[in-house]
Amino acid sequence: MNAQLVKQKLSEYYYKSLFADSQSDIHPVSLVNAVKSIIGIDFDISHERLLDYCENYVNGCTFVDSIGVFEDIEIPSAISFATLEESLLLRDFDKSIKNIYSLLKVSDGKHILEFLLESTIKYNNSVYILVWSVYKMSLFLNYKNINDSIIFCLKYIISNDLGDRVSEKKEEDIDFSKYLYNSKSIKDILIYQSILNEDLVRKVNISKYIKINISRGFDFSSNNKELIVHDDQLKNGRKWISLYLEKIKGDILDVELILMLNMFRGALKVSDGKYDKQIWNNLNIYLDKWN
User: Fold this and answer.
1) Is the pLDDT at 169 greater than 80, yes or no?
2) Nearest Cα to 284, choosing from 233, 208, 209, 235?
3) Does pLDDT of 160 surpass 90?
4) Is the pLDDT of residue 219 over 80?
5) Partner residues linked to 62 by β-bridges
6) 230, 280 Cβ separation under 8 angstroms
7) pLDDT reported for residue 167
């Protein structure tokens, strides 16, 4: 596949998706990010059907005319990230957008996106998964039109209650090899692994809140006996996921399946062999239940 042409198409799908009115857990923004990452595993594998599915999914959404703009805004004085956090907790869109506009005068958009990611993790807001997709797509597109991406995240954060702040308990070291598969926590455990290994400006705070979240709500009692791992998975590594999607029929392609496979891809990438067998085992459990 032509890498430049694929990037151009995904860029178009992404910017269009920012105006899609969709559920946060199956939003086209996350799908575009997933398709981008899966295709990027190996460009020698043809994924025209995956691109077509992505395009059709995006085009099938309902769209809004505007998500908000940074225009004619009176800049507040003495703004900090703490001030922005207060307006987010109040679910005050107008005040939040003013605060962000002011912060953009002294901070770059990447830092603000990281703060929004941190806030959603800190307050246990499931929208963090969508914010993470926006962050990864912004990185892929060299932060082009980042203001639109920031406003998009703000819109979804405000429309969802941030939830309860994670308790300030001592963070603990995590042995991901001991994680016991659970359908309710598998998404979080996979994405948390990716975020913990990302080079972030706010890495210290984000890692702290992730580790606290994990320590209070995940089961790490697996004894790693009788792991379900196939030889071709160990042989091909992440490429197995790309080959799997290439082989399945077009009418079976499903947004939730694609999103989950990308989460497993991300965990395998950062595992670097350390937890690969456990991740493959969890993927095979997931596929068995999905099928």
Assistant:
1) no
2) 233
3) no
4) yes
5) 21
6) yes
7) 62
Mean pLDDT of the chain: 90
Residue 19 CB partners (closer than 8 Å, separation 6+): 63, 64, 65, 66, 67
Give the model confidence (pLDDT) of 225-281 as tens digits.
889 999 999 999 999 999 999 988 767 889 999 999 999 999 999 998 899 999 999
Residues 281, 282, 288, 291: is their CA dihedral positive or negative? negative
C-alpha–C-alpha distance, residues 287 and 281, integer Å = 10
Asked whether residue 284 carries a pLDDT value surpassing 90, the answer given is yes
Q: Three-state SS string across the chain, please?
A: CCHHHHHHHHHHHHHHHCCEECCHHHCHHHHHHHHHHHHCCCCCCCCHHHHHHHHHHHHCCEECCCCCCCCCCCCCCCCCHHHHHHHHHCCCHHHHHHHHHHHCCCCCHHHHHHHHHHHHHHCCCCCHHHHHHHHHHHHHCCCCCHHHHHHHHHHHHHCCCCCCCCCCCCCCCCCHHHCCCCCCCHHHHHHHHHHHCCCCCCHHHHHHHHHHHHHHHCCCCCCCCCCCCCHHHHHHCCHHHHHHHHHCCHHHCCHHHHHHHHHHHHHHHHHCCCCHHHHHHHHHHHHHHHC
> Is pTM, for the whole model, over 0.90?
yes
Residues 127, 129, 132, CA angle at the centre, nearest 5°? Answer: 115
